[in-house]
C-alpha cells in the first residue's frame, strides 16, 4: 500500500459498524475514526463540546455538522502518519460528506470506497435493544430513542450513499449472518481495492 487508503463504513445504527471496524483496523492497520466514540469521550470528560453534543445524542438526534466536522478535522491533523483512515459513523449528512472530501483533497487521499452494511430494520432494533443491556450507552436503552436514531438515519444519513454513488464508490455488503461471515465479505471487497 503506497498511498493513504481511506474507507467509510456505512450503515444504520446497529448495522455492526463498530464491531467490524475493530476487526478491520486490526487487519489493515487503518486508523479508526468513530465520531460516536469521539463524542462519548468528550461527554465522559464533560467538555463544553461534550455537553452540547449530549443534548442531541440523548434524543437520538444528530449533533450539528460543524461540531463533528471540526472533530474529524482535528483527528486528521493529529494523525499525519496514518496509513489510512476508517471512518465509522461519519459522514452522516451530505454537508459532512462534502466537508470530508475537501479535507481529504488537502491530503491528496480520497475515499477509496464506502462499504455499506445492509441490515433489515427488524434486526437493527433487536440488536440495539440487546446491546443496550450491556453497552452502558443510554441511547441504546430506550426503544423510543433507538427509533428516533433510525428515523434520523432515513431522513438525513441515507442520502450520503447517493452522494458517493455518483462517484461509483458505494459497495453494498450484506450485514446479516455471523460476525466472521460479514467480516469476510468486507475483506473481499477491500482486497479488490487496496
Ligand atoms: P454512533 O456511536 O455512531 O451510533 O453515534 C451515537 C450518536 O452520536 C448519534 O445518535 C448522534 O447523536 C451522534 N453522532 C455520531 N456521529 C455523528 C455524526 N457524524 N454526525 C452527527 N451526529 C453524530
What does this structure look like?
By secondary structure, the protein is α/β, with parallel strands linked by helices. It has a single domain (6-193), classed as Rossmann fold, CATH 3.40.50.300. It is 56% helix and 13% strand. It has helices spanning 17-28, 35-44, 48-57, 65-78, 94-106, 121-132, 143-165, 179-193, and strands at residues 6-10, 31-34, 85-88, 111-118, 170-174. Strands 2-3-1-4-5 form a five-stranded parallel β-sheet, sandwiched between helices. Helix 4 packs parallel to helix 5 (94-106). The radius of gyration is 16 Å and the shape is globular. The protein binds adenosine monophosphate. Residues 13, 35-36, 39, 56-57, 60-63, 68, 89-90, 92, 96, 139, 149 line the site of adenosine monophosphate.
Give me the secondary-structure topology.
Layout: E1 6-10, H1 17-28, E2 31-34, H2 35-44, H3 48-57, H4 65-78, E3 85-88, H5 94-106, E4 111-118, H6 121-132, H7 143-165, E5 170-174, H8 179-193
Parallel strand pairs: 1-3, 1-4, 2-3, 4-5
Helix pairs in contact: 1-8, 2-3, 4-5
The site of adenosine monophosphate has 17 residues, from helix 2 and helix 3.
Summarize the structure.
With 194 residues, this protein is α/β, with parallel strands linked by helices. The chain is built from eight helices and five strands. It has one domain (6-193): 3-Layer(aba) Sandwich (Rossmann fold), CATH 3.40.50.
- What CATH calls the topology is Rossmann fold
Distance between the termini: 7 Å
Tell me what the CATH architecture is: 3-Layer(aba) Sandwich
Q: Mind telling me the CATH class?
A: Alpha Beta
Mean pLDDT value: 96
Please trace the helix and strand order, writing H or E for each element. EHEHHHEHEHHEH
Inertia-based shape: globular
* Strand residue content: 5-15%
Q: Regions with pLDDT < 50 over 5+ consecutive residues? A: none
State the share of residues found in helices, binned by percent. 55-70%
**CA radius of gyration:** 16 Å
Number of E-state strands: 5
In this entry the ligands are: adenosine monophosphate
Q: What is the number of helices?
A: 8
Main β sheet profile: 5 strands, parallel
CATH homolog superfamily: P-loop containing nucleotide triphosphate hydrolases
User: How are the strands of the biggest sheet laid out side by side?
Assistant: 2-3-1-4-5
The structural domain count equals 1
The helix-and-strand class reads alpha/beta
Oligomeric state of this protein: single chain
Amino acid at each position: 500500500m503506497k498511498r493513504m487508503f481511506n474507507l467509510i463504513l456505512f450503515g444504520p445504527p446497529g448495522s455492526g459498524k463498530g464491531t467490524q471496524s475493530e476487526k478491520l483496523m486490526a487487519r489493515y492497520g487503518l486508523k479508526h475514526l468513530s465520531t460516536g466514540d469521539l463524542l462519548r469521550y468528550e461527554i465522559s470528560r464533560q467538555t463544553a463540546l461534550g455537553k452540547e453534543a449530549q443534548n442531541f445524542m440523548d434524543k437520538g438526534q444528530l449533533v450539528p455538522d460543524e461540531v463533528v466536522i471540526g472533530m474529524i478535522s482535528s483527528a486528521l491533523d493529529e494523525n499525519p502518519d496514518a496509513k489510512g483512515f476508517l471512518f465509522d459513523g461519519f459522514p452522516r449528512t451530505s454537508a459532512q460528506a462534502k466537508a470530508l472530501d475537501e479535507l481529504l483533497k488537502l491530503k491528496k487521499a480520497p475515499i477509496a470506497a464506502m462499504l455499506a452494511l445492509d441490515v433489515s430494520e427488524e434486526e437493527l432494533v433487536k440488536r440495539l435493544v440487546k446491546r443496550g443491556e450491556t453497552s452502558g450507552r443510554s441511547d441504546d436503552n430506550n426503544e423510543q430513542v433507538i427509533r428516533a436514531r433510525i428515523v434520523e438515519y432515513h431522513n438525513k444519513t441515507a442520502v450520503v450513499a447517493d452522494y458517493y454513488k455518483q462517484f461509483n464508490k458505494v459497495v453494498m455488503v450484506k450485514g446479516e449472518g455471523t460476525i466472521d461471515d460479514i467480516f469476510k465479505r468486507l475483506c473481499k471487497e477491500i482486497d479488490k481495492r487496496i
